[in-house]
Each structure stands twice: as structure tokens, then as C-alpha cells.
Write a structure and sequence with these properties.
By secondary structure, the protein is α+β, with helices and mostly antiparallel strands. It has five helices and 18 strands. It is elongated.
């Protein structure tokens, strides 16, 4: 009788096997759910990263155009569409909007969503009744004049820059802090030697001859720290170019550089002076003479004898240089573009 009862109860091993099977089935469902979440979340993350790249690139490209004075909404939307598409692996992303939050900023939103017929397709979320998801990204870029940072260690007077503008442009700059169109583009000679005559229309009191001056070098590099906000920069005496700057001369021919412009200077005794910085102008170097470092420019005024200085012309230029911060001061043709959101 005892043997029959024991057989009816079943063995403990068989009972444990049944419980293990149930637990395994439950855990498999949980593991599959986590796998679905991990894979689909990864897909969403990758898709959003691509969209963010597209939004960033589009906003910077549009801001660059706007900073140059060509800010047309229809063209901006074409730019946004192109960058959204080509920064997406499947090229299905589209721009959702291009707006101007302020007069000197642009916001771009790109997306992949059901409304446009291009949502992100999910691999495993179907088991929860979801097969797709909407994803979007936005970026805001701003542009304007530089305010502070590191620049080439030389400066010249606003009166020198003003000669490259028309009377209308000078009046506009005085009224609004900006001007339309480009500077004249005429090649000029910016002399740094003590034999230079004072530039016509420039003051002679405590003002460097030729309207040109070297700035104090910072950190053993060919650069100076300049801040339009504080408005002051120290000078470095000497007519010739510093040895630290000689290796950078050829690179200046490749593209315009942003140069600080001063509105006045104060004599600090001897050859030293302190400049009141007004803003930054874009200047394309086309030549120089510093003996033995010479690169003549036949379109600029002749620089003979003991003459020392740079040749070139004023222009418009948009920089992505991270060494300069965005400001709100006067725009002298040199602008910077930054992602601000």
C-alpha cells in the first residue's frame, strides 16, 4: 500500500522539472522583451544621431550663407533638405522646418516620422504592438561679429578700414553697426615701419605711423588675446615680424583672416601703446615685406627701401574658428558662426 501511495505522489525530480520549464518560459519572454528594447532603442539612438548631424550641418551651412548676406528662405529650405537627406544612412530623413528665432540665428528641425511617410522601422517592438516610431532633432546656429579670443598679433586703425568703404557704407556702419555689400577690394599696404607716413584722415596723436601696430604675443605663440568688450590690447614694439610668426606667413595667403581694428591708441611711453579695440575686420593677405621674408604684391602700393608691412585687401569672411567668441558689436565684414543650441 505504501508503495502505491508513493507512486501516486510522483517523484520530486519530475515536479522540479515542470517548475523549471515554466520559469524558463517566463524568463525567455522577459529576455526577448529586453532584447527588443535594447535593439530598437539602439536603432532609435542611431537614427537620432544621424538626424542631429543633419540638423547641425544644415543650420551651420544656412548660418554661413546668412552671415554673408544671402539669406533666402526658399534656398535655406533646399539646403536643409539636402543636409537632412545625405546625413541619413537610408537618405529618408527630411527637414521639418527652417525658422529664424532671431535676426542672427536659424533653427533647423529634421525628422523621420509617420506624417511624412518615413518613420523609423522597429525590429522587435512588434511583439508589443509597435512597429515604428517618430524621431526628430533640431539645431540652432547663430552668427555675428567676434567679440573676444585669440587673433593674429597685429592691428590697424578704423580710419584705415573706413577708406575701403563707400560713403553710404560708412554712414550705414555708423548708424547700425553693420554695412551691406563688400569693401572695395582695392589692394592696400599696411606699413609697420617707423618711416611710414600717417594715413590720411587718421589722427597723428599717439597713433602708430601707417595706422598699423603689433600686439603683445600670448603663451609663446603667434597670437594675441583681444576683447572688444574690455576694449584694450597692449602693443609689442618693433618694426619687423616676430620669429614666432614667420612660419605662419604662407598660410595667410590661403584665406582671409580676422584682424582686430582699433579706434584709438594711448601712448604708454617709449615704443609701447595701448589700443582701444573697436571690432574685427576680414583681411586677405596677398603679400608682405619684412626682409628677408618677402612676398611682393604688384597690385598693392610699392614697398621699397626700409618699408615693412603687409599687402592685401578687405573683404567679407565667415569663420568657424573656435578661438573667437560670438559678440554683438559692430560687424566689419568678419563674422563667426556657432552652434548655440
Amino acid at each position: 500500500m505504501r508503495r502505491i501511495i508513493n507512486n501516486l505522489k510522483g517523484s520530486p525530480t519530475q515536479s522540479e522539472r515542470g517548475a523549471t520549464a515554466v520559469i524558463t518560459a517566463i524568463l525567455m519572454v522577459v529576455l526577448l522583451a529586453f532584447a527588443a528594447i535594447a535593439i530598437d532603442v539602439g536603432m532609435l539612438y542611431a537614427s537620432r544621431a544621424q538626424l542631429q548631424n543633419g540638423a547641425d550641418a544644415a543650420s551651420l551651412a544656412i548660418a554661413n550663407k546668412c552671415a554673408k548676406g544671402t539669406c533666402v528662405q526658399a534656398e535655406n529650405e533646399v539646403t536643409a533638405a539636402d543636409f537632412a537627406k545625405f546625413n541619413s544612412n537610408d537618405q529618408l530623413a527630411e527637414f521639418k522646418s527652417v525658422t529664424r528665432p532671431t535676426s542672427n540665428s536659424v533653427n533647423v528641425v529634421v525628422s523621420k516620422d509617420a506624417a511624412n511617410g518615413n518613420p523609423v522601422q522597429l525590429a522587435f517592438a512588434n511583439i508589443f504592438g509597435t512597429s515604428e516610431a517618430d524621431v526628430s532633432a533640431s539645431a540652432t546656429a547663430s552668427w555675428g561679429p567676434p567679440e573676444s579670443g585669440t587673433s593674429v598679433p597685429w592691428t590697424f586703425g578704423k580710419c584705415v578700414f573706413d577708406k575701403s568703404l563707400t560713403a553710404t557704407q560708412k554712414a550705414e556702419l555708423a548708424d547700425t553697426g553693420n554695412f551691406t555689400g563688400d569693401p572695395s577690394g582695392a589692394h592696400v599696404l599696411l606699413r609697420s615701419d617707423t618711416n611710414a607716413v600717417y594715413t590720411p584722415e587718421c589722427p597723428t596723436s599717439a597713433y602708430p605711423t601707417g595706422g598699423f601696430g603689433w600686439l603683445d604675443l600670448e603663451g609663446g605663440k603667434c597670437e594675441a588675446t583681444v576683447d572688444v568688450g574690455t576694449g584694450q590690447a597692449g602693443s609689442k614694439p618693433g618694426n619687423s615680424i616676430d620669429n614666432l610668426c614667420k612660419p605662419q606667413l604662407d598660410g595667410m595667403l590661403a584665406k582671409p583672416i580676422l584682424i582686430p581694428i582699433f579706434s584709438s591708441s594711448t601712448d604708454k611711453g617709449g615704443q609701447h601703446a595701448e589700443y582701444t579695440i573697436y571690432g574685427f575686420a576680414a583681411f586677405q593677405v596677398t603679400g608682405w615685406k619684412f626682409n628677408p621674408e618677402n612676398h611682393p604684391d604688384s597690385l598693392a602700393p610699392a614697398c621699397t627701401g626700409n618699408c615693412r608691412g603687409f599687402m592685401g585687401y578687405f573683404t567679407r569672411f565667415v569663420s568657424l574658428d573656435e578661438g573667437l567668441s560670438l559678440g554683438t558689436g559692430p560687424n566689419l565684414g568678419g563674422s563667426i558662426v556657432r552652434l548655440t543650441n
